[in-house]
Each structure stands twice: as structure tokens, then as C-alpha cells.
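Re: that chain you flagged

S.,

Sorry for the slow reply, it's been a week of failed gels. I finally had a moment to sit down with the sequence you sent. For the record, here it is as I used it:
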Amino acid sequence: MIHTISKIRVRYAETDRMDIVYHSNYLVWFETARILMLDQIGLPYKLIEKNGLFIPVLEARASYLSPARFDDRLDIHLYMRQKPRVRFYLEYEVKRSKELLVKGSTAHGFIDKNGKGVRPPNQFIEQINAAWNENA
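Prediction finished late last night. Pasting the C-alpha cells below so you have them in one place:
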């Protein structure tokens, strides 16, 4: 498994009139966590794009359990629990301290610059395997 934690401080602009984080911001934070994970395993997204590939979101889900508010300090936990095949799946937990606020998931695939689906490049699989922790 791969597990990373991104730190977020809720900005005023991310809240609505009810002083609650607007729902779509969680998807942005999921992306922030994905970019951090790729950096941490040694495969920055810029490098993937430089090689003519892209990782689109094929599916996204979020379950909102409790609201986050302006100036909250949040941890975005990203989990890759299965090694990738053609698609790969990520799970997210947004926490304020130990309180679980949002659970989510995304599914991804690789495409080339023409939009054609392709298998994950060997370098991606190798970096995932190198970062994989069976005991996490």
C-alpha cells in the first residue's frame, strides 16, 4: 500500500455563505494529494506529461460526513491499496485532527496526447513497486 498525507489550511474563499467548505473543493484537495503522492514516489506529474501521457480522472466519489470550516487545519490521507493495472484506484480521507470529515475515491487511467487509452508506463509501475509498503 502507498499512503501519503497532505496538509491543508481552509481558506476563506473555499467556504460558502454557510461558512462550510464548498463541496467541490474536496475534489481539488484530492488532486493535491495525488500530485504529492506522485512527487513522493519520484514520478512528478510534469514528467509524466513531458513523456506525452496524461492521467485523467475516470470516476470520483465523495461522502460528506461532517463540515470543514474556514481556517481549519486538515489532513488529506491518500491510499493506494491495490497495485495498478490498466486503471488505478485511490482512496481519500479528509480529517480534522482525528475526526473524519470526508471519505472519497477516484479511478484513473493513462491516455496519450491523442486521447487514446494506454497501459501505465513501466516507469510508473516500477516507482509504485519501489514505494509499495506491504505492512502499511
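What I noticed first: The beta strands are 2-9, 53-54, 57-64, 73-80, 88-96, 99-108, 110-112, 117-118.

Talk soon,
D.
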